[in-house]
Every structure is written in C-alpha cells, then in structure tokens.
C-alpha cells in the first residue's frame, strides 16, 4: 500500500497509512494473544497429535521444550550464544570466518594460533576445545582435530554425515544440501554453528571424503577455500571414496612413481591414502613453467598425460581411466594386474621425467646458441667477458632497442644461467619460461644480429677514440643469401671530389641513384672483406 500511486507523492498520506497499519498489527497481536491463552476454556490443546487437557498457564513452555527434545533429539549442544543464530551479525560472521580459516591453517597449534579474547577465541573454546574436538598428541606435542570428543550429543551428527555422503555415491552431495538437512529434525541446527562442524568433519575425514569446487577436485583445502565453503556452500560437492582390490593396486603403482619421481607430497593434502596421489600429480604439472605446459618438444604420450592432468576434474577418473589410456595401458578388472603394473610405473615415470626436463632442456639450448654465437665453450667465461664488454659500450649506444639488450648483457648475476635467461627475455620481450616452441628460432636469429651490431659498435668506439664521433657511420648490407655485412666508414664533408660525385648521383632519377648506391655499397663491402 505504501507504494500505491495514490500515496506515492503524498507524504502526509503515507504517514497516516503507516500509523493505521501499526494500530491494526497491534490489535491483531492482542487478539491472537488473548485467543490462545492457556486459561481460555474454549481452546482444545493437542500435544504431539493427542488431546491434552492438562495444559495450564505456565506449563506451555515446559511442554514445548519436552516436544523439542523429542523432535530434535540429535541436536548438538551449542555453548556459544553469539554463534547460535540462523543469521549472524557481521561481527559473529567475521569471527566464524577467522575460526574456520585458523582450523585449516593452524590445526597443529595450540588454540589454533588464535590470540587474545576475541569472539573467534570464544567460539573456538566453546565449540571445539571444551568438547574435546581439538586435542594435543602427548607423543608429538602437536594438536589435531578428532570427532570422538567428550560431548556425546555430537555423535549423531558425525554418523549422519558419514551415511549421507556415502549414500550420495558418485554424484556426491552439495554442502548446501547437507546444511539444509541439518536444519530439519532430528537435528534442527541453526546455520550459524553448522558450517563449523561440517568443516571440522572434512578436516578429520580428509582421507575418505573428496571435496569438489564447481566440479573440480580440490586436493588441498586452504583458508580461502574453507572461507568460501562457509559463505557459498552451494559451490562445493562432497564424495566418499571406497577402493576395491584393483584400485588399491593402482594406488600402490602411482605411489611408487611419485616416490621415484621425487614429487613432493606437501602438508594439507586430502585423501592421502588413495585420492592423494592425484593431488601431487596435479600440483606437479600445474606448477611447471608455462613453456613446459605448452611445448610439443616431448613425446605424444607425455603430451597426452599432461593434458589429462591439467584438465582433470575427477581424481578417480584421472587415475583409473585418463592416465592409463593416455599411456595405452588397460587396467580393467579382467586384466591381470601383474601385466600392467610395472608397465604403468615405467611409462608414467618416463613421462613425468620428460615434463620435468622440458624447461631445463630449453635453457640448455639457449645457452648453447649463446656460446656458439660468441665463440665460447664455457658459460662462466662467456658471462665474464661479454658482461664487461657490454658495460664499456653502454655510454656510447644511442639505439634504444640495442641499449635494452646491452643492459641485459651488462647486468650482474650470481648464476650465468640467469644471465642468459635475462638476455633471452630482453631479445624476445618475454620471459623464457613463457616461450612457445616457435620462439627459439627467431631468438637465435636476433641474437646473431645483436652480436654483429655489438661488434660494429665496438668498432665505432675504437674509431671514435681518434676522430669525432659524428663523422663515423655504420654501413649495413643484406645479401640475397641472407648474409649480413657491416662496415664502419668515415665521412668527410669538406672533400670537394666527394661533394661533386654525390651531386652527380643525386641528379640521376631515383631508381638510377638507388642502383648506383647498391652497386657502390656492394663493391665497398667486397673491398672491405678483401682487406680483412
């Protein structure tokens, strides 16, 4: 009514309307209150579906509490009033976020590393510490999460999560659906504390429950993931993995490859008993330099394995279908495991080694062409010689393009390999780790050109030691066979013969004068070559 066109522009009418609505609401509340008072003899009370004449004033709250105990008999005890709401205040929501982030990042620390007496500390102490869900290991001294605390009211919650995720099967169940079901009987959990217990469950059941974000497997849960899971539970799906005999054999084979390839299995990895082998593989390939993730200078098998790992969304499919098929290996139930386990190990190890060696191989090729162009067989000696040489020529270089490359030559590095990468990046205008296969040949050609230009600049520097620099010019000629010749020449504007010949040439038609210039340049280059 407040938005009706009749009162939209009439503030007095809107105030009058608001006042009358308020009066009507108050009268309705008073009427309903009087109607349902316990002493109203006209009312018939039903408790749990059955008539109950014993409802008296003062007994309704007790009866209602008893009914809730029956209806929500699996509801955990929440010993924190700030979190026990359906909708949290901004301060409570912030405290909950800081708590779940600490649960992921600092699980092994006392008090999860939380300091002071803030609301997040109060939530931790009442929901996790007091119920015995965060304990210190007497042998290691480290703290860890458990589900078997001293609050038996939580056991029904853990059983429900185990059963629900298992029943969901391969499709899994969204965290938002889990939280919605926890709102219903027999739990009746409010949306304030429920996500904290779900996060705890996922941390403890990391070996068995796989987490997917928007259909992509998440082998690691970090603070950002867990914070988003609480904020947007609809984005996350949970699946339980139970392995059979042949899958355990596949797992053992992958574990052997990961160990042989020395791929790190960092802390925080979920599902380390089975799905965890996918985590190190995914992380290994995703952290390769961009060149290694794109190059085709590896075998087709390595390219296929790299592709399925980078595009993987389901670790089970990756391990038991995609990788074996990429390696031309059949691991079906009808196949004797002894036939393919050793082959899977050897082929996958070879492929991973190829991927690991791709970027170092590119670096080696770049170093080799550097030493070839500058006539060296020792990279350290090449670094010392060319760095000092470039540093001495920087002041006389006016060409901005050549100057940027020479600055890379003159830059100091502890490792000559870094020096080479810097020069390659300066020449191609992009870092070597982001090269593509077709970047090497243009780099090699430009490197030769820059080497020649540096040589000629050095010649100019030598000439300028005895005559004005303004009179020195560098003549460059590119022959039909692709060979580039350069020669330093000295101009003499006061020579009358030179002026006369130049004027006669310039009187010719443009095409003729260019032809004369080309022929003259060719003859001069030949004479220079003969003199050298």
Write up this protein:
The longest helix has 37 residues, at 337-373. This protein has helices at 5-8, 11-35, 60-71, 90-105, 119-129, 155-168, 175-183, 194-204, 223-231, 245-260, 278-286, 290-294, 300-310, 315-326, 337-373, 379-393, 400-410, 416-428, 440-463, 496-507, 510-531, and strands spanning 46-47, 50-51, 134-136, 143-145, 173-174, 209-213, 216-217, 236-240, 472-478, 484-490. The protein folds into five domains: 5-35; 80-240, no CATH class; 247-352, no CATH class; 374-463, no CATH class; 492-531. Helix 15 (337-373) crosses helix 18 (416-428) and helix 15 packs parallel to helix 19. The chain is α+β, with helices and mostly antiparallel strands. The strands form four sheets. The chain has a four-stranded antiparallel sheet with strand order 5-8-6-7. The chain is elongated, with a radius of gyration of 39 Å.
Q: Which structural class fits the helix and strand makeup?
A: alpha+beta
Instruction: Summarize the amount of helix as a percent range.
Output: 55-70%
> What is the straight-line distance between the termini?
101 Å
Beta content comes to 5-15%
Major sheet characteristics:
4 strands, antiparallel
List keywords for this structure.
532 residues, alpha+beta, 5 domains, four-stranded antiparallel β-sheet, two-stranded antiparallel ribbon, 21 helices, 56% helix, elongated
Question: Layout of helices and strands, plus pairs?
Answer:
Blueprint: H1 5-8, H2 11-35, E1 46-47, E2 50-51, H3 60-71, H4 90-105, H5 119-129, E3 134-136, E4 143-145, H6 155-168, E5 173-174, H7 175-183, H8 194-204, E6 209-213, E7 216-217, H9 223-231, E8 236-240, H10 245-260, H11 278-286, H12 290-294, H13 300-310, H14 315-326, H15 337-373, H16 379-393, H17 400-410, H18 416-428, H19 440-463, E9 472-478, E10 484-490, H20 496-507, H21 510-531
Antiparallel strand pairs: 1-2, 3-4, 5-8, 6-7, 6-8, 9-10
């Amino acid at each position: 009514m407040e938005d009706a066109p009749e009162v939209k522009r009439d503030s007095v009418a809107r105030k009058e309307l608001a006042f009358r609505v308020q009066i009507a609401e108050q009268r309705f509340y008073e009427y309903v209150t009087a109607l349902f008072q316990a002493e109203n003899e006209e009312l018939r009370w039903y408790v749990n579906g059955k008539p109950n004449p014993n409802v008296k004033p003062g007994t309704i709250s007790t009866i209602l509490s008893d009914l809730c105990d029956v209806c929500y008999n699996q509801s955990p005890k929440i010993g924190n009033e700030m979190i026990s709401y359906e909708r949290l205040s901004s301060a409570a929501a912030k405290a909950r976020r800081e708590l779940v982030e600490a649960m992921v990042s600092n699980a092994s620390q006392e008090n999860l590393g939380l300091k002071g007496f803030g609301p997040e500390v109060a939530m931790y102490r009442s929901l996790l510490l007091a119920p015995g869900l965060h304990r210190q290991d007497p042998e290691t001294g480290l703290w860890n999460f458990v589900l078997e605390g001293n609050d038996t009211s939580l056991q029904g919650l853990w059983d429900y999560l185990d059963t629900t995720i298992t029943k969901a099967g391969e499709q899994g169940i969204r965290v938002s659906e889990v939280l919605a079901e926890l709102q219903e009987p027999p739990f009746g959990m409010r949306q304030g504390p429920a996500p904290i217990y779900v996060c705890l469950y996922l941390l403890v059941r990391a070996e068995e429950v796989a987490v997917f974000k928007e259909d992509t497997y998440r082998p690691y849960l970090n603070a950002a993931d867990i914070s988003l899971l609480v904020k947007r539970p609809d984005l996350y799906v949970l699946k339980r993995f139970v392995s059979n005999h042949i899958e355990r054999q596949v797992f053992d084979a992958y574990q052997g490859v990961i160990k042989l390839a020395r791929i790190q299995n960092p802390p925080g990895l979920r599902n380390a008993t089975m799905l965890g082998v996918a985590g190190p593989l995914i992380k290994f390939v995703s952290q390769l330099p961009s060149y290694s993730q794109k190059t085709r200078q590896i075998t087709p098998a390595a390219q296929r394995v790299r592709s399925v790992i980078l595009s993987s969304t389901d670790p089970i499919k990756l391990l038991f279908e995609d990788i074996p098929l990429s390696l031309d290996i059949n691991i079906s139930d009808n196949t004797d495991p002894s036939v393919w386990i050793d082959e899977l190990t050897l082929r996958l190890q070879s492929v991973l080694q190829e991927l690991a060696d791709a970027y170092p191989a590119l670096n080696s090729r770049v170093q080799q062409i550097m030493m070839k162009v500058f006539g060296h067989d020792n990279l350290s000696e090449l670094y010392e010689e060319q760095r000092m040489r470039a540093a001495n020529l920087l002041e006389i270089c006016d060409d901005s393009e050549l100057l940027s490359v020479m600055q890379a030559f003159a830059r100091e590095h502890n490792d000559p390999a870094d020096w080479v990468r810097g020069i390659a990046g300066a020449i191609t205008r992009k870092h070597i780790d982001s090269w593509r296969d077709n970047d090497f040949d243009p780099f090699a050609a430009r490197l030769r050109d820059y080497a020649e230009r540096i040589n000629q600049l050095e010649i100019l520097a030598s000439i300028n030691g005895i005559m004005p620099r303004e009179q020195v010019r560098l003549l460059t000629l590119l022959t039909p066979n692709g060979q580039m010749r350069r020669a330093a020449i000295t101009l003499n504007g006061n020579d009358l013969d030179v002026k006369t010949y130049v004027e006669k040439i310039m009187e010719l038609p443009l095409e003729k004068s260019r032809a004369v210039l080309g022929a003259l340049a060719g003859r001069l280059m030949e004479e220079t070559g003969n003199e050298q």
